[in-house]
Amino acid sequence: MAATTPADAKLVAQQFPTTPRASRARHILGYWRHPVAQAILKAFLTVFVTTSITFFLIRLMPGNPIDIKIDELTKDGLMTYQEARAQAASLFSIDLEKPILEQYISFVGNLAHGNLGYSFVSQGTPVTAIVLAVLPWTLFAVGTGLLLSFSVGVFLGLFAAYNRNKAIDHILSIGGSVISAVPSYFIALLIVIVLGVELRIIPYTQMRGAQSAGIPVGFTPQFIGDVLYHAILPVSVFFLATLGHWILGMKSATVNALEEDYVNAARARGLSDGRIMTAYVGRNAVLPLITQFAITAGYAIGGSILIEQYFVYQGVGLRLQAALLQRDYPVMQGILLMVTLAVVIANLLADLLYSRLDPRIGRAGGATGT
Amino acid sequence: MQAAIGFLRLLSKRPSGLIGFIGIVFFLVLAFIAPIFVPNQELADVNSIYQTPSLEHFLGTDNSGRDVLNQIVQGGREIISVALVTALLTTLIATTLGAVSAIVGGKVDAVLVAIADIVLTIPYLIVLIVISALARPTNFLALAIVLSLLGWAGLMRQVRAQVLTLKERDYVEAARSLDLGLFHIVFREILPNMRSYIVIHFVLAMTGAIYAQVALIVLGLVPFSGKNWALMLYFANSQGAFYFRDAFWYVFSPIFAIILLQLSLVLFVNALEDIFNPRLRSS
Amino acid sequence: MTPILSVRDLSIDYRTSRGPVHAVRNVSFDIAKGETVAIIGESGSGKTTLAISLIRLSPRSARITKGQILYTNDRETVDIRTLPDDELRHYRWSECAMVFQAALNSFNPVINVWEQFADTGRAHGMKDTKEIHARAQELLDLVHLDPERVLKAYPHELSGGMKQRVLIALSLMLEPQLIILDEPTTALDILTQRSIIDLLGTLRKKLGFSMVFISHDLSIAAELADRMITMYAGTVVERASVTDLFYRPRHPYSVGLLRAVPRVSGAMGAVESIPGSPPDLIRLPPGCTYIPRCPLAIAACAEREPDLVPVDTPEHEARCIRWKTVAEQVGTAEVAVAEKIATA
Q: How far is the C-alpha of B196 from the C-alpha of B109, rounded, in Å?
């Protein structure tokens, strides 16, 4: 294309702003600036920080669990202090003879090999095995509940925004505020005491647990049906506990998006209302909610400890509660680590999804640079 | 005074916000003023345990025959105090760090933002539970400190973003060229312009603190003694009262009180957002 | 020949808590085939409200209280105000396209330029993707952009000038008879403004569409327009050919706008802005709305709002009872001003 006027020359310059060498240099330096690399780095740091905090709390707090364990082991005189200390050390998989910093380094080293120590209570059972046995149940219940509430909430929020100030909008907005004000654990408790104990609508004793005894595990309709049956209550709680948040969030994001110039421009172009609602309004409005999804997932998994107890649902939360009661510190620590890992991975996935859905993120080079 | 009247006028156009505001006032009165006039009733009465509501006991009785209504009146003070202190600390940490981060910029900014990002990704509740189990906060202040140390990051990022935009405005430029110093710029020029943000986040921090502390107390991780709605639930749980039909009012009353308090705060904060964000303002 | 667009006695109110804002009042004008009409005025004069009502895109708070917007193509004449929704969708873009004031923000940020072309084509029954693609390439070529690069790009990857070119290309997609341009160059630097104006001039010659050009910048409007309409306080205060308006303005507000034009040459001395601000459109005074700012106002001006009356020639109208005085006062100095603008 020939630059015929000064303005055209400027245009050419705009279209080819960088020399190949400059862009290559940016590529090499750019690896750490790449959003995916940054997200992974952030994820790694998050796990590292939470584990480190718990490590030092366990080791350095007065009346720390290791000293308590040693006291407990030496109390009845069956073990010498040295033996007890060695056993406590092996249960935590820390070498107590070393200075704290070296302990910390070897702890992190063990961690890297997947060694989280052994349970205090069920002697000889690796913490990793305990956590892996319960984590899938929680992830399943939380994941299903959240995905359901996200889709339903986004739909209702969009609907409310499109029917702004009509009765349905007021009902959804006030309803959303009300259920978002109820703490998740109270939703679970109210289901049990109102629908279960008081009104006897729900056979909550039958629905306890994550699965029924005597049904063989496998991809049989019977097993899957049973798993779903037991998951209904926890899934409904995660669903209800987050639904209001999505309705209100999507409504306000949609109201904002509807005012954007590009929505008006799309109308001017004669696009159908359906296309505008999905590709123009909805897609832009839902973007900020995707980043919130991961944060909400973190809250919900954390909340599972407060919810699973009411349904005796054998997930992470129930196991953690047992560990708290039994002062089974390695298990507590292992669960904390795994849950952090799960949440951080959820965050990572949300970040990746976000950068795929929003071209403004992570494609800084774009049409001109690539 | 005039500002307060103007604010109430704006609020009165939003019925749900007004209800929230009245709710908050009600709970403040219930928690801090009512106990002065209603004496604490410790008297147990084994002949009237788990009673359903009656004229004598409006909300029934608990496992040792004590009046539930009396416990509700007595039990709000601690919860609301912890919520207020936590919100205060959270706001203080978040605005200070956010403003410093935005104004100083450079490496300080990068580090603070990175820390905030990490704190934000930490699964708050489970970390809180494990930390409480290990560190055993035994008084309100310790609990409030733990809660605010985990809760400042979201507001900090927003304050930072706000300060970054406000920073460019003329009056801040003017203050800077007069060399009035960081402290002056932050506290005299920038923060007063962020009042709406800070108020909203203060209320949100309160709801977060109520959620978390009730969870911790019900789990028995914060060994408080005395009278407290969450503690009522802890005792109810340990007595198996959740599954006892006659105990419904005993269990339901503190739950309802906490939900109503949360709802008041949420309705109020939604109205605040509505007032401060003209785009969302209903016509 | 019937004009392709005929706006008749159009009035638009905005509902507010203080009462209706009379944003557009009794506006009438015609646009002939191939003609360009510039609507000029300060912000708040109602020109954008008028422009968006032409494709019925007014915000919900706006209400057309009376008048007609008659559009004529080779088959029929329709009133845009009462057009059924499906026909309105067809009318938008394939009959009448719009290039927005905030072109910088006219594209959906999350889909690339190609998809915005494809969406537009599909919305108007173009089913063949290849056909849409070929058309998009042709049009981008026409606006001097590299189609291969630009189609793949996302809006944020384009500069303001490029985006405006893409939007112009997109507006031509369905060969509309009429294009409404609402301040199309406002957000651009002077060099880019120039090239966009040149481009629009060339395209009009080549394709023969009509344009409604909304601007507060007289010098830019003058370059493209055949006729000009001055709007003040929601109503037309003067209507004339470009030459008449520049050399023989007959409304004091037009004179004020001419004097307020910044001139590159600068030789004429300081730019004069019009003192005062537009009236409150909720509580309009009974007389002429320009009185508070008018140097020529007399008691009679306040009696009733003047009518739009022919001055000099039947094609030149002004809403001022003192237009003869204006004519006397606009001396040779004004002509010189106009010449400077015209040649700038």
A: 24
Q: Which burial class, exposed, middle or buried, applies to B228 when counting CB atoms under 10 A from its CB (0-12, 13-18, 19+)?
A: buried
- The residue of chain B nearest to residue A199, with distances taken between CA atoms, is B245
CB atoms within 10 A of CB A231: 22
- How many other CB atoms sit within 10 Å of the CB of residue B69? 17
What 3-state class would DSSP assign to A317? Answer: helix
- Measured between CA atoms, the residue of chain C closest to residue A262 is C106
Distance, in Å, from the CA atom of A298 to the CA atom of A73, rounded to the nearest integer, reads 37
Helix (H) or strand (E) holding C241: strand C235-241
Profile chain B (283 residues) by mean pLDDT over runs of 10 residues. 76 85 93 82 69 70 74 85 94 90 86 86 80 76 87 86 75 65 69 79 91 87 76 84 79 90 92 70 40
A278 three-class SS: helix
Do the chains contact at A14 and C161, CB–CB below 8 Å?
A: yes
Classify each residue of B86-97 as buried b or exposed e, where b means 16 or more C-beta atoms within 10 Å of its C-beta: bbebbbebbbbb
Tens digit of each residue's pLDDT (9 = 90 or more) over A293-319: 877 887 788 788 888 988 889 899 889
- Cα atoms in the 13 Å half-sphere on the side-chain side of A104: 15
Of C183, C109, C172, C108, the C-alpha closest to C140 is C172
Which residues, at least 6 apart from C188, have a Cβ–Cβ distance to it below 8 Å?
A: C160, C161, C164, C196
The string of pLDDT tens digits covering residues A52-87 is 887 777 776 666 677 777 777 777 777 787 788 777
Give the Cα separation of C331 and C126 in Å (integer): 56
Chain C positions in Cβ-Cβ contact with residue A261 (cut-off 8 Å): 100, 102, 105-106
ipTM greater than cut 0.90: no
CA distance A179 to chain B (A): 9
Measured distance CA(C225)–CA(B92) in Å, rounded: 60
Q: Which of C97, C124, C149 sits opposite A367 (nearest CB)?
A: C149
Q: How many CA atoms lie within 13 A of C259 on its CB side?
A: 16
Question: How close, in Å, is residue A366 to chain C by CA atoms?
Answer: 6
Min Cα distance B192 → chain A (Å) is 26
Closest CA to A92 of A340, A278, A277, A327: A327
Helix (H, G, I), strand (E, B) or coil at C54: coil
Task: Please tell me the distance from the alpha carbon of residue C169 to that of residue C44, in angstroms, as a whole number.
Answer: 29
**DSSP summary character for residue A118:** B
Q: What are phi and psi of A118, to 5 degrees?
A: -125, 150
Q: How far apart are the first and last CA of chain A?
A: 19
Q: Is C41 left (phi over 0), alpha (psi -120 to 50) or beta?
A: left
How many helical (H) and strand (E) elements, i.e. helices and strands, does chain C have?
12, 12
* The three-state (H, E, C) secondary structure of chain B, written as one string: CHHHHHHHHHHHCCHHHHHHHHHHHHHHHHHHHHHHHCCCCCCCCHHHCCCCCCCCCCCCECCCCCEHHHHHHHCHHHHHHHHHHHHHHHHHHHHHHHHHHHHHCHHHHHHHHHHHHHHHHCCHHHHHHHHHHHHCCCCHHHHHHHHHHHHCHHHHHHHHHHHHHHHCCHHHHHHHHCCCHHHHHHHHHHHHHHHHHHHHHHHHHHHHHHHHHHHHHHCCCCCCCCCCHHHHHHHHHHCCHHHCHHHHHHHHHHHHHHHHHHHHHHHHHHHHHHHHCCCCCCC
C311 in Cβ contact with C318 (< 8 Å)? yes
CA dist C32 and C5 (Å) reads 7
C-alpha–C-alpha distance, residues C64 and A295, integer Å:
47
Other chains touching A, judged by 3 or more CB pairs under 8 Å: B, C
Nearest in space to A202 (alpha carbons), one of A229, A178, A222: A229
Helix, strand, coil percent content, chain A, rounded in steps of 5: 75, 0, 25
DSSP β-bridge partners for residue C238: C230, C318
Block residue for tokens 């601690």: B78
